[in-house]
Amino acid sequence: MMRRRRSVPWIHRWSRPMIGAIAIAGAVLTAYLTVTKLTGEEVVCLAEAGATGNCTDVLNSPYATVFGLPLSLFGFLAYSSMAIFALAPLVVKSDRQKELKRNLENWTWLLLLAGSTAMAVFSGYLMYVLAFQLQTVCYYCIGSALFSLSLLALTILGRHWEDIGQIFFTGVIVALLTLVGTLGVYANVNSPVTEVPGSDGLIPISQAQGMPQPPSGWEVTTTSGEAEIALAEHLTAIGAKNYGAYWCPHCYEQKQLFGEQAFAKIDYIECAPEGKNPQTEACQAADIKSFPTWEINGEFHLGVQSPQKLAELSGYEGPMDFRYKLP
Predict the structure, then answer these.
(1) Average pLDDT, the chain
(2) Does residue 114 surpass a pLDDT of 80?
């Protein structure tokens, strides 16, 4: 009497191709973010209605850079590795390589488990930052988090794990290591920079601390020098405009670079309805999608600009001994 062969659940048959497909999609997403970041371009993203920010603000935040490199670059490497782990055993087809394939499958499943757990924990932390620290919406970030959770779910459900304790033990260890490492990396992301003269004679600016209070946001704590005041007067004289929002930490960095006295001379356009003297219609007419944005001689320049860069863009020829630098 012949025994019926036990059927393999569909999810076990298709788990690796599904994991590979999601990982490739994640790699494409993070590759796009990395290229735009390294080339200075802006990502295509619209702000959520009623939200105080958008994807550009998130991707330009201090949380988006690790060890001086775009966080998305590390995401690309993680997704690429997951795709390799998932699809590599599928390449081994020969019957004479069964032992190799069996060992490869076992090891890659463990690597998939460790990798997806780490990615899910890290994504969870970034979702916390997005909701409670940055308080804005980033569809790219949310999409990447969903990819990470999907990878973890498919890894756990995608094969028959003979030892459930193996999943639990590996997951807990990897999760703890990831969480400790993440907290260590971001421990000083919002710490103020001590204002002491640097080796180049410049002074680091202090970053935003705490929650911005409408209508003015954070208090500008730097004092302007002669060069900053002269540059501000020059920018206003040629009709340059600075678009921003009181809640935007990068707008605050821009103000700190000029100092209180100099920035008061800048033609600043407040885009947030709750801000001081808001000019939301002017921001909409100029199609401003990220903060800060400079309009100089009819051209728009996105993000925080150093005084040296603004001098170059505007044709400024006054004193150049600027006091402050970007962190």
Answers:
(1) 86
(2) yes
Contact residues for 258 (Cβ-Cβ < 8 A; gap 6+): 222, 224, 228, 231, 232, 266, 307, 324
- CATH of region 203-325, choose from 3.40.50.720, 3.40.30.10, 3.40.640.10, 1.20.1250.20: 3.40.30.10
How do the domains of the chain map onto residue ranges? 10-185, 203-325
DSSP letters of 121-160?
Answer: HHHHHHHHIIIIII-S--HHHHHHHHHHHHHHHHHHHSS-
Q: Which CATH number fits domain 10-185: 1.20.1440.130, 1.10.3080.10, 2.60.120.10, 3.30.930.10?
A: 1.20.1440.130
Q: Which residue has the tokens 């949380």?
A: 63
- C-alpha span between 274 and 272 (Å, rounded): 5
| Torsions phi, psi for 187 (to 5 deg) | -60, -40
Q: Are 246 and 212 in contact (CB under 8 A)?
A: yes
CB within 8 A of 254, min separation 6: which ones? 242, 244, 263, 292, 304, 305
Contacting residues for 99 by C-beta, under 8 A, at least 6 apart: none
Would you tell me how many other CB atoms lie within 10 Å of the CB of residue 91?
A: 9
Helix (H, G, I), strand (E, B), or coil: what is residue 267?
Answer: coil
Backbone angles phi, psi at 72, to 5 degrees: -60, -25
Q: Tokens 């920035």 appear where? A: 263
Which residue matches tokens 């990470």? 148
Distance CA 7, CA 4 (A): 9
Amino acid at the residue 132: F
Q: What is the mean pLDDT of residues 186-193?
A: 58
264-309 pLDDT tens trace: 999 999 998 889 999 999 999 998 888 899 999 999 998 889 999 9
- On whether the pTM is more than 0.85, the answer is no
Residue pair 53/136 in contact (Cβ under 8 Å)? The answer is yes
Residue 201 to residues 48, 57, 309, 322, 325, Cα–Cα distance (Å) = 42, 30, 18, 9, 10
* Distinct helix (H) and strand (E) counts, the chain: 11, 8
Residue 211 reports pLDDT greater than 90 = no
